[in-house]
Amino acid sequence: MSLWTSLEPASATVDPGGSTTVRLRLRNTGDVVDEYRFEAVGDLAPWTVVEPQVLRLYPGTTGSVDLTFAPPRTPDATAGPNPYAVRITPTEHPEATTVPEGNLTITPFTEVRAELVPPTVKGRFRGRPKLAVDNLGNTKLTASIGGSDNGDQLSYDIHPSNVQIEPGRAAFVKTTLKPRQIIWFGSKEDRPYTLAVQRSGVAPLDVQGTYVQRGFLPRWLATFLGVFVALAITFVMLWIAYQPKVTSAAKEKLQEAGISTLPPSSPSASPPAPPTPTAAVTTPPAPAPTQAAGAGGGGSAGGGEEKETKAPERTAATAVQQLAAEDPGGRHICYRAYVKGKGWTEAVCDGETAGTVGENTPLKALNIAVSGAKGTAGAAFVHDPGSTNGQGHYNAPWSGVADGIDNYIGSTKKDAPDLLGFTINVDNGGGAVCQTVHVHDAAWLGMGCDDPEAGEHFIFGGTLNNDLWLEAVKFTV
């Protein structure tokens, strides 16, 4: 080897979002002039700048290059020791490549974002919002969830009440709000509440929401019933007070003639049954037969020409119902994707690909249906044009459906934002749902599944990055 190298220092520390510099010193120990090219390799290479990239040294001379590390303040900058290396290739002897190695310690940071989905819920006896907690830091997040409100007007059932979230992942917490007093009559009332994400040694992160409690019966119905009862009592009292007395003159004449008006004595006689009330029954007329467009008399243009019938759309529910009929005891999931500029793809099932790969065409929405899984629910994570941290956001309420019903995530409107990711689950006891997605400028991501037995009732697929979008998806249950 005709090259001596030294890293100064061999180990360095840097904060995410900051930078640090390490100097690489080298000496040409050979007997010829040589030119050296430098290239950063390893996981830290995307965040490493080598200056200069080419250095020419005479025999016995020493030179140096600077390695500048600038990891971003994102979950990708893994906290702790991270090895790095620099490949040095001599121009005269390319086979004598040298790769000095060093160590860079990235300091941990914590960043948490929480959002209620939806922020406002309505109900008479309960409300069921969901709290989305995103770990935007580079260390594992452990937190507890609690609820409170002014006046202690609500009770809270939170599941799970404790969460552990890996860097760059999200968790959904189910919350059931129950009012302590029921509004039997009257208008709705707004009850503000707070869900707090509490971490050890840190001030809690509060998320504000509103529960709109509706009355059991509307006020107008109570007024109507009161007026109706008052009128009914008044009518009965008037009827009793002013009932006309009817007498029979014919009976008096018969008594004067000595003719008895009493019926013959019969111990077994019983009064006749009252007549059954009758009402006129009106049979509704049969509906008139529908004529095809352009047919029938009356001078329509193109008389006799029938209107062409369009075949029904084959949605995810149509596909999964067909599978359920063929395999009644099995679990199946069918789905299709709405591709920008192309529309809905064909419905596919059980691990097949929906969408496009490598065509740079983002997905706008997903249509999903399951069988044998006790229903499914989901929410869309989409591009946020007003983002200040390079992240998207949840912009649609959580949607849930039963087996065999179409569930839609995202929007197919012309100006709808691109789909960056999604959260999906199947009902408790219905098994687990697994997903893998293809992200723009990346390969297929690893398969991820929820684990209801371990308390993970939802799985997030996709990316939080505002500049990346989904191109294709695969699901299994």
Mean pLDDT: 83
Q: How many domains would you count in the coordinates?
A: 3
Quote the distance from N terminus to C terminus.
Answer: 57 Å
How many DSSP helices?
A: 3
What is the beta-strand fraction?
35-45%
Q: What general form does the structure show?
A: elongated
The radius of gyration computed from the alpha-carbon positions, rounded to a whole number of angstroms, is 39 Å
* Main β-sheet description: 5 strands, mixed
Q: Helical amount among residues, as a percent range?
A: under 10%
The total of beta strands comes to 32
Order of strands, main sheet, comes to: 2-9-8-4-6
Q: Which residues form runs of ≥5 with pLDDT under 50?
A: 250-306
The structural class is mainly beta
Q: Can you tell me about this structure?
A:
The structure is a single chain. The protein has 477 residues and is mainly beta. The protein has 3 domains: 3-106, Immunoglobulins (Immunoglobulin-like, Sandwich), CATH 2.60.40; 112-213, Immunoglobulin-like (Sandwich); 316-476, no CATH class. It contains 3 helices and 32 strands. A 5-stranded mixed β-sheet has the order 2-9-8-4-6, with no helix packed on it. The longest helix is centred in the middle third of the chain and has 23 residues, at 219-241. It is elongated, with a radius of gyration of 39 Å. The two termini are 57 Å apart. The model is unreliable at 250-306 (pLDDT under 50).
Helices and strands, with pairings:
Elements: E1 3-8, E2 11-14, E3 20-28, E4 34-41, E5 48-51, E6 54-57, E7 62-69, E8 80-90, E9 101-106, E10 112-117, E11 120-123, E12 130-135, E13 141-148, E14 154-159, E15 162-165, E16 170-179, E17 189-198, E18 205-213, H1 219-241, H2 249-256, H3 316-326, E19 332-339, E20 343-344, E21 348-349, E22 354-355, E23 363-371, E24 376-382, E25 393-394, E26 399-401, E27 407-410, E28 419-426, E29 434-439, E30 448-449, E31 459-462, E32 470-476
